[in-house]
């Protein structure tokens, strides 16, 4: 069972300083096939770009071992074991679905291998199931949506109807929103969860939303479901009377062009938008587009920042599993998303949230940032974290 | 009815030897793959029992395995029941569920039977996916393995666990052979060949089908309990219809109605999948082309092909010596 | 929830629209099965292929180009499949057919990924069918009405062909007893070929029609396969009436299930399928007996 794909990113600097060169072996655990293959590829491209950009700041050589999770928890666990026990990686990164994260969590924690989560957003991973070895550089489901609840209430929206797929992430996204929206005086007039990945026709739910008497609709959908939803929402002509809001994955740069004009005017909130104005994002977006020909999505930036976090940890002197785990928890830097730091209580990333509107621009749809909401830490959610020994 | 031929014995011994060799020499990932093969082999054994010997082509065996896995997970983590009891419990629960499915679907045949079993499998899947008590899409973790330290086996060790699965597979194989040779098994093959006649002879056809389906379900449940312990985590994907579909493909690929063939198929399928997925993310394409090629060769799967080519010859030689076996019967029997 | 008539009219139209889409897929599958006793699990993959071809053509020559040419292209693939694989598989029993069509699903899934990538594609609704129409007192998207009209037109055309023409009589004879039909001088092989191609074309058409409504993803074929199989099994294999009845039952149960009993929505249709098979083990309107 030898792996063929060993992409050794032997950087020029490692040749220049052979005496001090550390060899850091990174296991990248991502879906390269299955429904989330597009996400996995974007994270992979972002991660590679991150190492290429910042890796030279250290004297270390980074070697990447890629493994395909196929979005199947049992497969992913087998691959994680292989990375830890056989390839003896120093650190792992990746993981798109929360189910996969749940499956590998005990293994990673038990073996004491640092894991940089580059997507999976289940609240538990940095809550009740938190681990000093698991650092999340992406987002948590609640974190992305809570600021939006307050913001929408501030815009004078009183009654909202919510829709999301019926699975853990869908419920957590909506709960996060509903919690702050009602706290700010708003009212949820109806709520429906659609069968996950089995709903192709949203017509029945849209008719209900229309009849609910809400001022606006707030939804979470991603990937293929997001495209179907946005297009069908528009085809029923609901956008004019019943504006569509949502979690920013709804109009992600990864697939917003497939939604076409139907996505125009949809207002959503997310931790990254390709049009954020700062120097780090400008450099990142240009480099990513040059490398892949695509506009970077939130998935790409998560991969990029995961690589950056790893580099920062190595720069701080970390060389092995233990020291990397400790160092990863303390990284902070200004990235494309703005100032980032790790919450010591949960190991979840603290980051600003951006409210943006999808608008027509030159050469396709683009994103107009309406507001930058302040960075906020997640509640501890039952996380009790023993510090990594010594 | 199932019969061991010298060829089948030979292949069984070879398979067991290869598994033992792998178990004692392989590295961690090799052991993972071995365990995966052993668990899949147990599932396809259960499926071949109903599909190959009773004509009940089930598209819910993956879901039955999932029921076993979830039953074990729920019993150990939520009900706090000791692993050995939980294992027995999960086998019993899965068997009961399978019995009911078998009884309800007994009147359907062919594609209708396939679809009826699919319906039950999907119902189980949807239920597990949506009921919060099962952990939904995120699954359930923290599942303990059986504690066999009193007989000197530490199952948290991959090697010991692989050996344990091999032992369980051997037991399941023995049980399957015994069932197929019993009166029940003979009635079952009678039903497959001529259901009308068996009914006319006064046999309660649906009872026979349900009983065998239930027994098959128990083996699938055991496979599920082992799968839950192997990965120490369960998720709804275990119950998806593609798992059942893959199991069916493995049975046909190996050789329907040969018991030994599906074991060969399981090993071939898992090894192929891992080797290919290491080389290309498009491994489905290669597997698909191989499946098509196997069918176009007009053989009854890999093992069926071997039997058709060499089996009859070896048999004839043995038959000449013993004057007991009829040449050519192997193929029609399968 | 609204109790007014408009709400229920809207939902009934939604159900009808879903039914018609499923009908386009299931009629091909059910007649192929009835005639050739061939379980083509790869039918869903042909639907996905139709959607992808339509998306590519729409990018070049607009929606209508995809709409008319995608069925032709998929029928072309059908011809290849028929002459390369399926004709030889006709006598090899259902197990071999399951295996070979499963192999096709695997192969076509990855081929679409290689050709079109993992990212979802989409087609814009053509200008002619954009917007909404007032219909039975509700505003309903024109494109969805178009799907309903298209489905009804195809039902009518097939009912005419199968019921009133010579080739229809030949197909019915073939479904009933292909050996006897061959004895009566019907070229059964050619009949199979024609029916298979038309079935593939309809699957391609369904894909092309669904593409502007949904997103075009590699796994859309797998997603639609199970609903299609449920439709033809509830309806009974081999008959137009069965496909129509099955599609309508599925569409209405799915839509109104989602409205009236959302917690049960995903289990409901399977429970119904199981119930039908317990009461009528060969479906509601099977072609034979």
From TrEMBL, chain A:
Sequence ranges assigned to domain Leucine-binding protein in this UniProt record: 24-359
Keywords: Amino-acid transport, Signal, Transport
Source domain of life: Bacteria
Signal peptide: 1-21
Stored Pfam families: Peripla_BP_6
A biological process term (GO) from this entry: amino acid transport
Family per similarity comment: Belongs to the leucine-binding protein family.
UniProt name for this protein: ABC transporter substrate-binding protein
From TrEMBL, chain B:
Residue ranges crossing the lipid bilayer per the database entry: 49-73, 85-104, 110-128, 160-180, 212-235, 247-270, 282-306
Membrane-topology descriptor: Multi-pass membrane protein
Alphabetic keyword roster: Cell membrane, Membrane, Transmembrane, Transmembrane helix
GO molecular function, one term: branched-chain amino acid transmembrane transporter activity
InterPro entries: ABC_transp_permease, LivM-like
Places the protein is found: Cell membrane
Domain of life: Bacteria
Cellular compartments per GO CC: plasma membrane
Keyword Isomerase in annotation: no
Name of this chain's protein: Branched-chain amino acid ABC transporter permease
TrEMBL record, chain C:
Membrane topology listed for this record: Multi-pass membrane protein
Similarity section: Belongs to the binding-protein-dependent transport system permease family. LivHM subfamily.
GO MF annotation, one: transmembrane transporter activity
GO terms under biological process: amino acid transport
GO cellular-component term (any): plasma membrane
Name under which the protein is recorded: Branched-chain amino acid ABC transporter permease
CDD domains from the UniProt entry: TM_PBP1_LivH_like
